[in-house]
Amino acid sequence: MLIKLHRGDLPADFTPGSSIAIDTETLGLKPARDKLCLVQISVGDGSAHLVQVDRTTYDAPRLKAVLVDPGVTKIFHYARFDVAVLKQYLGVDVGSIYCTKIASRLVRTYTDRHGLKDLVKELLGIELDKQQQSSDWGAHMLSEQQKKYAATDVIYLHELKSRLDQMLEREGRSALAKSCFEFLPTRAALDLSGWAEEDVFAHA
Asked: What b/e readout covers 109-141, taking b as 16+ CB neighbours within 10 angstroms?
């Protein structure tokens, strides 16, 4: 696994291809309070680019350009959170989204375990180490363990998408998944606007 750490922005020679796997690390789980610290990207070749963003300016034009490119599919696991965080701190509306967690919920109805660790273990036969999940991502110098953890959050997403796409097709739920993915920017906007805990579609 090749891990490349970049400070501030993606390198000028970064080429995303038709799809990227993407994840974020923050100082907590409340986008309005907990700052974005790290953006991880993989193009599906087993390597990971870790962008340690400048938390004073969030000036990352090359990263932002990739995030808004409609020709690049962005593969997330739990896109709802990441899309909201990227909107809050980078000011971008991420489009062309695929969420492995939503896909899993639509086809793995035989289980209630839809975390990344569970998906990777069942579908790919790989055990992930999640020990660094709650570490300090605001540190100026990230540890080797943090870098490896951050990288493993994205390097398997392309393969997971491929497996889940097969299951979605098998169960006749590909179109439903696509509609869910297209709604995610609106769901993130609701979260940022104060409706995170409220179902606006509920009867009562």
From this structure: eeeeebebeebbeebeeeebeeebeeeebbeee
Residue 104: CATH number of its domain = 3.30.420.10
Write down the pTM of the prediction.
0.96
pLDDT band at residue 157 using 50, 70 and 90 as cut-offs? very high
Q: Is residue 55 part of a domain?
A: yes
pLDDT in tens, 52-94: 999 999 999 999 999 999 999 999 999 999 999 999 999 999 9
Contact yes or no for 8/107 (Cβ under 8 A): no
Contact 34, 28 (CB under 8 A): yes
CA distance 166 to 152: 23
- Which of these, 99, 63, 64, lies nearest to 80 by C-alpha position? 99
